[in-house]
Model the fold of this input.
Amino acid sequence: MEALEQRILKEGQYLGNGILKVDSFINHQVDPLLMDACGREFARLFGGVGATKILTAEISGIAPALTTAIHLGLPVVYARKTKPITMPDQVYLTLAPSHTKGRMVELIVSPEHLGGGEKVLIIDDFLATGATILGLVRLTQTAGSTVVGIGTLIEKTFEGGRRALEHLGVPVFSLARIVELNEEKIVFA
Amino acid sequence: MEALEQRILKEGQYLGNGILKVDSFINHQVDPLLMDACGREFARLFGGVGATKILTAEISGIAPALTTAIHLGLPVVYARKTKPITMPDQVYLTLAPSHTKGRMVELIVSPEHLGGGEKVLIIDDFLATGATILGLVRLTQTAGSTVVGIGTLIEKTFEGGRRALEHLGVPVFSLARIVELNEEKIVFA
Done:
């Protein structure tokens, strides 16, 4: 998506270790009109997959998942990383490594809001190794539901995430696909 | 707001200790169309306060703050509760007690995205004691900016938050004001 790529080129900062800082429009400050445009684009791309629910992971996935949900008119569930006291004792929980945190994090969904028989569209901010998204896939499958599509704002193609998701046989779309990332330049596919 | 009140009556669950569970449409699963309607209502209520930026706290504040930001066309910043590695070493940090977590949590904003001279509209999910919102007020003032309005989805009037915010002399709007909450009933103002 041209607008997202241009914004990454203008404001994205490479911090080393494969980390792209996009705090000025996605991860700390959010540009709501850009995010709305991304949600509209996801709605267009996944309009035909028959999704009944959108699933994301707190925190940074919430914004793009919500705007996609607005445009598709579907409920969105965000997996929690700590279990709030409002959740029942029995939950679906999986572990996923966090690249930016350098440790494993929990992904928790309540059976109240992810049951069986749902067709789940997963939306997140980044596709890197695919570890977080595979965690969301496991939660979906454990709940007895099916993943029907995966969308991310930014993909770092050189971290292998797309390959790790291939076996699912569902459409995977990223709105900006970075094939090269270093101090000097950001190159899109 | 009628639609929000009706939804609270239909799906809100009182868990004791003043805690209202609204996990099916705000805090874990989000109803995007209701949230969009709430954002539109905040935009109408705060259209005249001259805000230049919206500030909220992760995680549950993100959805209503984002939809308000879409309707006002303003950037939104969400205060982080843990400092991500993408943030600079020098940040604005304050502590606020979390009712649902039973401990103090950090609220952190990067000076890159909350500088001086901004007119800040604070949006959050709940107004209870006002402790989280007062934390966001302190961050705003420390950054050299001014709070021009405060909006929350749900206010529990009996916890005193509105009184705690009075000295700021800015408009405070809540879309659903609960005056009585117990096992038997939820009563709106």
